[in-house]
């Protein structure tokens, strides 16, 4: 990262944290970096805050649109923590408009995200809790929140990119995602 980049990224971070997502300040700073030919490294996860992560977490559609437009102009593929550009929170809280906006961004940039069903389960050994298993994927959150619209979008995405989603993957005693639950959701979706 250049010194200039550090300075302006810090200013953007301060606009996010101090002003609670002050869009005008963020836009002014992004415009200034463009006018002065300063390219921000927007995916540097060593910084205190990833801008797209903040937008996704806080359901700030205006900021997400600004960032995706900025990334398009500067040929930057946005990501969060070296993964895909949608935070788990967007799925957890059913931020439908944010998810649609970012799925559209993902499709336009040919980004493949991991939407498989996953979960964490815990083992107890000598009173220590150890978390093992898979990450929680977008489809997991969406199914748990019973959001048929997003399930449909994710299934369409899986079909487009030939992603196989095996709902029978997780057969253990502590399975949080029961097969019957998935079957119910899929049947609801088919009748949608």
From TrEMBL:
Gene3D superfamilies: Ankyrin repeat-containing domain. It holds the Pfam family Ank_2. Coiled coil: none annotated. InterPro entries: Ankyrin_rpt, Ankyrin_rpt-contain_sf. This is Ankyrin.
């Amino acid at each position: 990262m250049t010194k200039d980049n550090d300075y302006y990224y810090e200013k953007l971070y301060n606009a996010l944290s101090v002003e609670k997502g002050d869009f005008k300040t963020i836009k002014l700073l992004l415009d200034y970096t463009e006018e002065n030919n300063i390219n921000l490294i927007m995916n540097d996860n060593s910084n205190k805050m990833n801008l797209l992560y903040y937008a996704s977490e806080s359901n700030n559609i205006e900021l997400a649109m600004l960032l995706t437009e900025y990334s398009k102009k500067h040929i930057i593929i946005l990501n969060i923590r070296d993964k895909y550009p949608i935070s788990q929170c967007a799925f957890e809280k059913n931020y439908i408009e944010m998810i649609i906006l970012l799925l559209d961004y993902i499709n336009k940039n040919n980004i493949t995200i991991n939407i498989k069903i996953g979960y964490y389960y815990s083992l107890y050994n000598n009173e220590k809790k150890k978390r093992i298993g898979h990450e929680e994927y977008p489809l997991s959150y969406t199914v748990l929140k019973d959001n048929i619209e997003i399930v449909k979008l994710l299934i369409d995405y899986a079909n487009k990119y030939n992603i196989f989603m095996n709902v029978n993957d997780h057969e253990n005693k502590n399975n949080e995602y029961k097969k019957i639950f998935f079957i119910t959701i899929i049947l609801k979706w088919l009748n949608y």
